[in-house]
Amino acid sequence: MFIIFGWEKEEYDKINFTQCYCYNCSEVKRWVLHTEVEWVSFFAIKTVPFLIKRNVYCERCGDSINIANLKYMSLNKSPALIIDYIECTQFAKKNDTQKSYLIEKRQQSEQNMNDRL
């Protein structure tokens, strides 16, 4: 008896995942959820999801943030939690001077948008 097994990789994007401010490109843009699943297959039939990777990335600049599976399960309950996670992750790489500059730049951008309306 022969058993044929292998690996299959599946990738897909959820385009309208969330919309929030990107501190990398300084604009409010859509963030896309990219999911990559590696399956164990028997006789060319996907049976067991072996590895799941999730990233969110800014649609404009491509700034990517890895989301662990347990973190994704808790974040998926609320869009506000996702937005907070994205902002905190983008700020984690910055020092205090950079953070204050980015916050000031965002406030100026929002003020300009309000003035136009």
SSE run:
EEEEHHH
Which spans of ≥5 residues are poorly predicted at pLDDT below 50?
Answer: none
**Overall morphology:** elongated
Strand content: 35-45%
How is the main sheet built?
Answer: 4 strands, antiparallel
Distance between the termini: 72 Å
Task: Going across the biggest sheet, name each strand in turn.
Answer: 1-2-3-4
How does this model look, in words?
The chain has 117 residues and is an alpha+beta fold. It has one domain (7-112). The protein has three helices and four strands. It has helices at 69-75, 79-92, 96-116; strands at 5-22, 27-42, 45-58, 64-67. The protein has a four-stranded antiparallel beta sheet with strand order 1-2-3-4. β1 (5-22) and β2 form a beta hairpin. The longest helix is centred in the C-terminal third of the chain and has 21 residues, at 96-116. The radius of gyration is 19 Å and the shape is elongated. The mean pLDDT is 85.
Short structural description:
The chain has three helices and four strands. It is of the alpha+beta class and 117 residues long.
List keywords for this structure.
elongated, 4 strands, four-stranded antiparallel beta sheet
Topology, please?
Layout (H helix, E strand, L loop, with lengths): L4 E18 L4 E16 L2 E14 L5 E4 L1 H7 L3 H14 L3 H21 L1
Antiparallel strand pairs: 1-2, 2-3, 3-4
